């Protein structure tokens, strides 16, 4: 089943949506949603056609769609920031980069020009660039060797591959001469063709796909170049014939292509007026069906006990182990049953290799010797690159390694059966543990939680109670910074701050008491972790503490202070290289609520503590992950939703993106 678009698919779609009657150029961009972790929906107003929805799934697909996934109840940060930059803008171009699985969408809004880059390979990504190709915002901030996809960096394309549309015989021969694989794999990996199109090129050229790449000569290269030209001529001429493909005995489609392939000549096909419609029928309909199945599964899970689900999974695993054990044991026995024939075949293959025959020549020799070698009639395929011969012995297919003896080949399958038997026994033991846990759960009375919570003034701010019991309060924004200093800061308090932008003013409420070092250290971690240092993905930072009388709103003559800003005068007491870390927990007594802050402080007052580090998941996503952890642990959805819903958890998280520390 096809999981992602190929380079040829991207080329066909870019031609279709970038030019002609189906063009998206001059379409106006409306609201943007993120229905899934890697899925983006952009509402469009297409010139003279009306409303439409563009679905982009990073690493998989891009097309207009009639199958609209539901929008999340709480808008996520990435689509909201995209709205800020491109909503109301118009598409100026829609094109493929090189022959890669990258689409660039040019956008102009007023005087601002931006580019939305869609990467449809690997894990994939969606990145917004400014007019200088500097990254404004990536969906997933990542760092590769020599390539950083993070805000503020200049966008760099992945390492370029050769384009099959422009390659000549000399370039082809050069690439194949340095490949230690076969023809089809080299075409797939070095020319951005993928498996299916590489096989199609071999089929049209008449070249054996298993031919070692090092054996490609100018004559073979010429045939491959000619086949590539014929294959992609519909793209160059704009004469697409898009269709979905299914097996004759199945109604389920397994591929979608922009033009006919000889490889699929005997398969059932359904043709479309446009490639975009074919993509939507293949990817969009399947995604909608999958979403419906997930909903049904979720409903079923809610009515099914966790131990019952686990038991079903373990019983299913045992059945699979038993089936695989029987299969591998049977193959080993078949190898011994045909001992002499296989031994004679292996000797023939080894003799031919010692004479420096190529695998193609060996296949020809074996084909001519089928009358003399009974086992030769049983050959299904020869994989020269791996040194494997696939045989069909009495209806059982098996791989024989030409470098091993007959007993050694049989032993390979016996060893596989032994390993599977160990796993089967382990699964049986796990089933017994699950059954004991089920009995224990039946015997144990269900724990009922009671929600106890009062409203406190400090809950409008960022806050935590230190390990020593001192209240530490920080601003959330300019307004709360201002309010905290003017209304709640007292002379006997201590004030923490960092010079990093976006850092909250943080006040330690001393009550006139001596402040231990543990509280000071936790306050330092708090002010650093809840600043832009966390957003920047750093793992340590500096901060300082001062006395309240050092904080003033009176600027120097001729200066102006914006809302939420203050002037600090006098000596500062610094904390250097303070670790950036935080935690979330559940306070279950005397009150019930979600709490967040430094790890040590949360562990003293909270239960079910989840530690966090700067990472890749936005606040909404990480809050949902933590919420699911609490539901699983407490087994009381109603209680968890009341005290620690995703919204309440997000309220105590550090700003920016996070990961759960394992």
TrEMBL record:
Instruction: Enumerate the UniProt keywords alphabetically.
Output: Coiled coil, Protein biosynthesis, RNA-binding, rRNA-binding, tRNA-binding
A single GO molecular-function term is:
ribosomal large subunit binding
GO-annotated cellular components: cytoplasm; RQC complex
Please give the InterPro entries that the UniProt record associates with this protein: NFACT_RNA-bd (IPR008532), RQC_Subunit_NEMF (IPR051608), RqcH_archaeal (IPR043681)
BP GO annotations: rescue of stalled ribosome
Claim: Coiled coil is one of the keywords in the record: yes
Pfam families for the chain:
NFACT-R_1, NFACT_N
Tell me where in this chain the NFACT RNA-binding domain is found.
461-570
Which regions form coiled coils?
A: none
> What subunit structure does UniProt give?
Associates with stalled 50S ribosomal subunits.
Free-text function comment from the UniProt entry? Probably part of the ribosome quality control system (RQC). May mediate the addition of alanine residues (Ala tailing) to incompletely synthesized nascent chains from stalled ribosomes, leading to their degradation.
Q: Which PANTHER family match?
A: NUCLEAR EXPORT MEDIATOR FACTOR NEMF, RIBOSOME QUALITY CONTROL COMPLEX SUBUNIT NEMF
Record-stated family: Belongs to the NEMF family.
Under which name does UniProt file this protein? Archaeal Rqc2 homolog aRqcH
Q: Taxonomic lineage per UniProt? A: Archaea, Methanobacteriati, Methanobacteriota, Stenosarchaea group, Methanomicrobia
